[in-house]
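Typical record is below.
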Amino acid sequence: MKLFNKYLQEAFEAKSVLKVITGIDNINIHQVTKMAKAAELSNATYLDVSSNIKLIKFLKSFSSLPICVSSIDPVDIYNALSSGVDIIEIGNYDFLYNQGIYLSKKQIIELSKEIQCLANNIDICVTVPYYLSIYEQVSLAQDLKNLGINIIQTEGISKVHITDYPFNLIQSGSSFSNLHNSFIPSLFSAYIISQYVNVHIIASSGCKNIVGPISKFYGVSGIGIGSAVQEQDSILRMSKYIDETSKFLSGPSLVNSFTNTNNDLYQFFILNHKELLYT
């Protein structure tokens, strides 16, 4: 699973990747600059930013971190590549979800092939959609690996459909309530995929630093954080939060300390993937 970028390769092998997401549609220079500087001052691995040429070039002028852009538009990706991005992510499906559009497994494969033709010697990450069955997610991950794509990202439930899921599990006093709803299915998809496909996995969608100690137990090579960083009111606080997350991620899994959380996550997963019980 060799990556083109040596720096990223080392981070993924160490399973310590921490992606800071400034916002896929966020082109607010002031806000993005604060997050980028905080990431630069801390132990972030790379930045995930909007595919805006001016923004990319501006960040490249002062940040030494690798820069990733997420898009499903080949033209956007081509322009981003021309601006010097270090990694491409086929994702940002929320734009489609808001329009009631859901890509099929076949469409994602075809899109990945098209992007590969544009991105020579650039690492590509592909987001596996949450709405696919767990079998389709595993199958898609395997097909992507066969294409030569060595990084995938799992996503949580879209805000469009978050009320469709049985979050009655979340009760006061339950350790489950300490985790962001949308990150839970992302984590479990990562776990199942990691059991069948030897590929680097990033789990994202509403991640908080509390999940750092258990994330590696679920087979991920790293996590993506964004909104939790944006909530901090200064560059110093942002940097501190990123560093805390990095320490959690790099430390021991502490699985035994999260037994209750583990059980609650398992209950949620079984409710939403009952088909696994019959394999």
Notes: Residues 160-180, 254-262, 272-279 have pLDDT under 50 and may be disordered. The first helix runs from residue 6 to 13. The CA atoms of residues 133 and 273 lie 8 Å apart.
